Amino acid sequence: MPARAEHIPRKDETRVFLEVYDVVLYVGIIDILQEYNLRKKIEHAYKSVQFDSMSISVVEPTFYSQRFLEFIRKVFPAHSIVN
């Protein structure tokens, strides 16, 4: 079953697009192939000194899963599901 894609204007856009497209999405999650071990914890600590600890890629698995689900919900809002 194809997904539904529609253009959502940014705040600075004045034109409204009403086109809706059927799309097929291929999604792969490769991060499950790596264990969050001592090496990853050290990498997180090192990168946290340089950058915002919440925005770096190496984070604790529970936080990563919450951030990932938040992203998916933002990209695919519930009201956009078509039956």
Automatic annotation (TrEMBL):
One of its GO terms (biological process) is phosphatidylinositol phosphate biosynthetic process. Residues 1-76 form the PIPK domain. It is an enzyme of class 2 (transferase). Transmembrane segments: none annotated. GO terms for cellular component: plasma membrane. PROSITE patterns: PIPK (PS51455). Keywords: ATP-binding, Kinase, Nucleotide-binding, Transferase. It comes from the Eukaryota. GO terms for molecular function: 1-phosphatidylinositol-4-phosphate 5-kinase activity; ATP binding. Its EC number is 2.7.1.68. Pfam families: PIP5K. Gene3D superfamilies: 2-Layer Sandwich. The keyword ATP-binding applies. This is 1-phosphatidylinositol-4-phosphate 5-kinase.
